[in-house]
Amino acid sequence: MTTITYRETKSSSGLHFDVGSLLQKVSHSWQQWQAAREIESMPFDIRKDVGYPSAEAADERKVM
Fold first, then answer.
1. CA neighbours within 13 Å on the CB side: how many for 8?
2. Most CB within 10 Å of its CB: which of 11, 17, 47, 62?
3. What's the CA gap between 64 and 51, in Å, rounded?
């Protein structure tokens, strides 16, 4: 006779993955925010040289 038993292997480690992925998303968002602030704090000429779009071009794209 064969007996099939279901064992739930999910332990508290499953929670660590969710918390870890959440922390990664928060960290990534924070780094993006910091990078955007650094770019926006640069003078216009430097941003233009780097290839960052001007405010006028950005506004036109939002309208479209």
1. 5
2. 47
3. 21
